[in-house]
Amino acid sequence: MKIKMILLLSVLGLTLLTAQNVLIWDRDDGSEISDPEDPWNYVGLEVGIKSALTANGIIAEVDSLLADDLSQYDIIFATAGIWCGG
């Protein structure tokens, strides 16, 4: 079991490192959280994902609409909000 988890994490890590086209699908209807860098400001939920990717040299496209053709993206992240509205 431990070997399978390590293998899975290795494959995911390699996929992230080689990803060239990344989409962050911002589908949280404008949900915001307090900015960890400046608690007086609020930022969208996608900011944390985008900054983590940018820190690792990956440029991500952020869009609130999902494209019809997703084959151009290697990885897609989706924000779903901080709670379910119903």
Question: How does the SSE layout of this entry go?
Answer:
Blueprint: H1 2-18, E1 22-26, E2 32-34, E3 42-44, H2 46-55, E4 60-63, E5 75-79
Parallel strand pairs: 1-4, 1-5
Antiparallel strand pairs: 2-3
* Physical arrangement of strands within the biggest beta sheet: 4-1-5
Termini Cα gap: 37 Å
**SS strand fraction:** 15-25%
Number-wise, the strands total: 5
Spell the H/E element sequence: HEEEHEE
**Helix segment tally:** 2
Estimated helix fraction:
25-40%
Most strands sheet: 3 strands, parallel
Mean pLDDT value: 82
- Low-confidence segments: none
Structural class: alpha/beta
Which of globular, elongated, flat, extended, rod-shaped describes the shape?
Answer: globular
Radius of gyration: 15 Å
Outline of the structure:
By secondary structure, the chain is of the alpha/beta class.
Characterize the structure shown.
By secondary structure, the protein is α/β, with parallel strands linked by helices. The chain is 31% helix and 23% strand. It contains two helices and five strands, in the order H-E-E-E-H-E-E. The protein has helices at 2-18, 46-55, and strands spanning 22-26, 32-34, 42-44, 60-63, 75-79. The chain is globular, with a radius of gyration of 15 Å.
